[in-house]
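Work Package 4 report. The design task specified in the project plan requires that, given a folded chain encoded as C-alpha cells, an amino acid be chosen for each position. We show below one input record used in the internal validation round.
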C-alpha cells in the first residue's frame, strides 16, 4: 500500500544532544533516555514521533500505511514503495518528527534512518524488517475523525475441544461419558466473553479482542488406546498439540500447516481442551483443571517454520476458571504484541502480569516493577489496561484499526453489535457525552472494573449480584440470582448517584459501593458480641449464594477492629488487608486473615485449616485459621511470611542458594478473634494491634487501609464482597 504522498507535510524539530559517555554502562534499571515515548502525540491527522539513533544521523524516516507487519508471510514487499520523509539534515542522536496531513483512523508503519541500528534479537538481526540503513518497523495509528471512534481489533480464533478423554484414568466399569451439552459449551464461550468485555472496558474501548469460536466435533483420546476398554473408546484420534496452529477451515486436521484452508491472518489463538478424567474413588467424570501456557506472537517470525504466520497462542484445560485463564493467559499475548511492537522500556510497556517488585527475586528476573497500587489477578490487569495510554494502544503493529460511529465523541460507540459494549446496551445517550449531565459516560463505565468473579472452576462460579446487571447489559444474557439478593451497585448512566448513598458519582470515591470509606473511632471489646457496633455503619454487605454477610470496621487507641456477621452455610471468610493502601504486591504491609467453621470431626484447632473436603460443623463457632503477612520484599512468590525455606539455583553457574522466608510480624496468636454463633448466624470479631510490630497496622488519623474480603462457600465457589480482587480503601479517622 502506498501512503498519500501529496497530503503528507512534515514539520521537524531537532534536538541536538551529545552522547553521554556513561551511556553504554547504564544499569538496566535506569530510566530510558530520551524520556519521550516513541509517539508522544496523536490526532486524526497529526502524529509526533520521537526516536534515537545509534550514532548521529540526519532526521529521516520511511512511512507506509497498511494492516500487516512486513514480516508477515506475503508482505515482504511492503516497504518497496514507502514514502521517505526527510527532516533536518544536521546529524543528531535524538530526533523528533511531527507528521501532519495524515489520514484519520489509519495505521502507519515507519522505519527510521539508523544505519548502525542493532536488533534486540542478536540471533535475528533482521527481525521486524530491519533493512539497512533503516531500523526495524514500528507503527502508529491516527485517531478517528469527530463522529467516530477507533480501536485496535485483535482477531482471535478460539478452539474448544469439548470431548476428550484421558484414557489412562478410565476404569472398564465407568459409565460412558456423554458428549458435552451445547449449553455447557456456551458456558465456556460466555466465560471467554466476560474477559473480552473486561478488556474492552478497562482499555477505555481501545482494545477489542474479537473472538471467533470453533469446536472440535470428534471424540479424542489422551494416552494410548486400551484393549480392556469398550469399543466406544476405540479408533479415536489422539488429542492435538494445543500450542500448534489450528486451521478453522480444517478443524479435524491436527497437523495443519500453512497455507491453511482458512487464510485469514489471526493475531491470537486460544485452544481449550476439556479433558475428562474418571475419578475412581468418587466414581464420577470430571474436567481436569490446569494453569495455562502461552507463546507470544514472536513466532510470527521464528520458531517452527511450518507454523507461520503464527498468531500468539494460549492453551489450557477445561476444568478451571475459563474467564480468568483467558484474562491472564491472553494478557501474555497482549504483552508480547506490544513488546514486539517496540514498547519495551520501563516506562513504555504493557506490564507483565506476574506481579512483583523489580530485582526482588532471583526467581523473577525482570528488571522493571510489575506491581503497582492494585489487588490480585483481575484487578492488577485492570490497572495495567487503564494505565496504558490511547497512544500506546495505537502503536500495536498487529491486529487492525477499526472505527465505529460515536456521535458524541465520548469514546463509546453508538450502537455496534460487533463490540462487547456500546451506548445502546448501556442505556446511555449516544448524542450526549455525559448522559447524567455531569460525569462523562466513559468515566461512568470505568466506575466499575467489570470483574466477573473470583477465580474458581467455571461450574462453581459465584457472582456478586453487583456484576449481574453489568453482564446482562452487555450480553443480553442472564445469570442466576436469588430473590432478595444484594451486593454492590453498578454504574447507572442516567442517574447521578449510582449507589444511592447521597454522594453524587462525581464526588464519590467509590461510586458503586454505598459504604463510607472510613475507619471511625469506637469503643469496641472483641468478645463475639456485636452490640458495641450498633452505631458503626457497614463497609460492605452481600446476600447471594445462600449466605448473607455484613462487614464493619473501627479503631481505638490500640487496635484495628473488624466485625463480620454471616448467616447461611460457608467454609471461611478471608480478609486481605493492604495496611498502607499501596497495593497487595507492594510493601511488607499486607496481611491475610482467614476465619472459618470448625470441622465436624478432628478439627485441627486455631492456626490451622481443616482439609478442603472436610465436612464442617455449621452450628459451631468460627475459628481463626490463619494470620500471615504478605511480604513483598520476600525472595520470590509466594510472599507469605510463613518462615518456610526458599531454594534457588543460579541458572548461569548452578550455584545453590537457600533463604528462610522472614517472619515479619507475630502470628495468629497476636490477633484477637472472638466468635459466637446463634442459630444460623455467626459472628466474627477481630482486633489487630496497631503500631505494636505484631501486625503491619501502623495507622493514625488520615492513614488509608485497603481491604479485599471473600466468603468461601461450601460448594467450593467464593463470593467477593467488593468487585473481585479490588481493594476498598478506607481512611482512619
Ligand atoms: Ca458515544
Ligand atoms: Ca454518550
Ligand atoms: Ca454515591
Ligand atoms: Ca501494600
Amino acid at each position: 500500500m502506498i501512503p498519500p504522498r501529496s497530503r503528507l507535510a512534515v514539520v521537524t524539530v531537532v534536538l541536538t544532544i551529545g552522547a553521554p559517555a556513561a551511556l553504554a554502562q547504564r544499569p538496566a534499571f535506569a530510566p530510558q533516555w530520551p524520556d519521550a515515548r516513541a509517539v508522544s502525540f496523536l490526532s486524526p491527522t497529526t502524529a509526533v514521533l520521537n526516536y534515537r539513533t545509534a550514532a548521529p544521523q540526519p532526521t529521516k524516516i520511511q512511512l507506509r500505511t497498511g494492516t500487516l507487519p512486513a514480516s508477515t508471510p506475503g508482505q515482504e514487499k511492503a516497504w518497496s514503495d514507502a514514502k521517505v520523509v526527510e527532516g533536518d539534515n544536521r546529524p543528531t542522536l535524538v530526533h523528533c518528527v511531527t507528521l501532519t496531513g495524515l489520514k484519520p483512523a489509519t495505521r502507519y508503519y515507519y522505519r527510521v534512518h539508523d544505519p548502525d541500528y542493532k536488533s534486540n534479537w542478536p540471533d535475528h538481526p533482521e527481525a521486524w524488517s530491519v533493512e539497512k540503513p533503516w531500523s526495524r518497523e514500528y507503527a502508529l495509528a491516527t485517531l478517528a475523525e469527530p463522529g467516530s471512534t477507533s480501536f485496535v481489533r485483535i482477531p482471535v480464533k478460539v478452539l474448544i475441544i469439548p470431548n476428550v478423554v484421558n484414557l489412562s484414568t478410565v476404569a472398564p466399569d465407568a459409565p460412558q461419558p456423554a458428549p458435552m451439552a451445547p449449553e455447557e459449551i456456551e458456558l465456556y464461550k460466555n466465560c471467554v466473553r466476560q474477559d473480552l468485555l473486561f478488556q474492552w472496558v478497562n482499555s477505555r474501548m481501545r482494545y477489542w479482542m474479537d473472538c471467533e469460536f470453533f469446536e472440535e466435533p470428534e471424540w479424542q483420546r489422551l494416552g494410548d488406546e486400551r484393549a480392556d476398554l469398550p469399543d466406544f473408546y476405540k479408533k479415536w484420534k489422539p488429542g492435538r498439540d494445543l500450542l500448534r496452529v489450528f486451521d478453522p477451515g480444517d478443524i479435524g486436521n491436527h497437523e495443519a500447516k500453512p497455507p491453511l484452508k482458512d487464510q485469514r491472518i489471526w493475531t491470537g489463538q486460544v485452544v481449550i481442551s476439556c479433558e475428562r478424567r474418571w475419578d475412581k474413588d468418587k466414581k464420577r467424570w470430571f474436567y481436569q483443571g490446569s494453569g495455562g501456557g502461552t507463546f507470544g506472537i514472536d513466532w510470527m517470525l521464528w520458531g517452527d517454520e511450518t507454523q507461520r504466520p503464527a498468531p500468539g497462542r494460549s492453551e489450557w484445560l477445561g476444568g478451571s476458571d475459563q474467564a480468568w485463564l483467558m484474562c491472564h493467559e491472553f494478557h501474555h499475548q497482549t504483552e508480547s504484541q506490544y513488546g514486539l511492537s517496540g514498547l519495551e522500556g520501563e516506562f513504555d510497556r504493557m506490564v507483565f502480569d506476574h506481579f512483583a517488585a523489580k530485582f526482588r527475586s532471583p526467581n523473577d528476573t525482570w528488571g522493571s516493577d510489575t506491581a503497582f497500587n492494585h489487588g490480585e489477578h483481575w484487578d492488577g490487569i485492570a490497572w495495567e489496561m487503564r494505565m496504558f495510554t490511547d497512544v500506546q494502544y495505537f502503536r500495536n503493529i498487529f491486529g487492525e484499526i477499526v472505527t465505529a460511529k460515536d456521535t458524541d465523541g465520548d469514546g463509546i460507540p453508538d450502537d455496534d453489535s460487533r463490540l462487547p459494549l456500546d451506548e445502546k446496551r448501556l442505556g446511555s445517550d449516544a448524542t450526549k457525552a455525559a448522559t447524567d449531565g455531569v460525569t462523562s459516560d466513559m468515566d461512568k463505565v470505568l466506575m466499575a472494573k467489570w470483574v466477573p468473579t473470583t477465580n474458581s472452576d467455571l461450574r462453581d462460579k459465584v457472582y456478586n449480584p453487583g456484576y449481574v446487571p453489568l453482564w446482562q447489559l452487555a450480553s443480553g444474557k442472564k445469570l442466576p440470582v436469588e430473590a432478595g439478593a444484594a451486593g454492590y451497585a453498578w454504574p447507572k448512566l442516567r442517574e447521578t448517584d449510582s449507589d444511592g448513598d447521597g454522594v453524587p458519582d462525581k464526588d464519590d470515591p467509590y461510586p458503586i459501593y454505598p459504604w463510607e470509606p472510613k475507619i471511625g473511632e469506637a469503643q469496641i471489646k472483641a468478645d463475639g458480641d456485636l452490640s458495641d457496633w450498633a452505631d458503626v455503619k457497614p463497609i460492605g454487605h452481600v446476600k447471594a449464594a445462600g449466605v448473607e454477610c455484613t462487614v464493619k470496621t473501627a479503631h481505638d487507641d490500640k487496635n484495628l477492629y473488624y466485625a463480620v456477621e454471616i448467616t447461611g452455610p460457608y467454609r471461611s471468610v478471608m480478609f486481605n488487608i493492604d495496611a498502607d493502601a499501596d497495593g497487595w504486591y507492594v510493601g511488607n504491609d499486607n496481611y491475610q486473615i482467614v476465619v472459618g467453621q470448625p470441622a465436624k470431626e478432628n478439627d485441627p484447632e486455631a492456626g490451622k485449616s481443616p482439609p478442603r473436603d472436610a465436612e464442617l460443623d455449621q452450628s459451631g463457632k468460627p475459628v481463626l485459621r490463619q494470620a500471615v503477612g504478605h511480604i513483598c520484599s520476600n525472595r520470590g512468590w509466594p510472599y507469605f511470611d510463613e518462615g518456610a525455606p526458599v531454594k534457588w539455583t543460579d541458572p548461569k553457574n548452578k550455584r545453590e542458594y537457600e533463604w528462610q522466608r522472614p517472619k515479619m510480624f507475630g502470628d495468629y496468636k497476636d490477633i484477637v478473634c472472638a466468635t459466637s454463633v446463634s442459630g444460623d448466624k455467626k459472628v466474627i470479631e477481630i482486633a489487630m494491634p496497631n503500631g505494636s510490630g505484631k501486625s503491619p497496622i501502623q495507622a493514625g488519623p488520615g492513614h488509608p487501609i485497603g481491604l479485599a474480603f471473600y466468603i468461601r462457600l461450601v460448594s467450593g465457589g467464593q463470593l467477593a464482597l467488593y468487585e473481585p480482587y479490588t481493594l476498598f480503601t478506607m481512611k482512619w479517622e
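Residues 497, 499, 501, 503, 505, 508, 511 surround calcium ion (ligand 3) (CB under 6 Å). Validation will be extended to a larger panel in the next phase.
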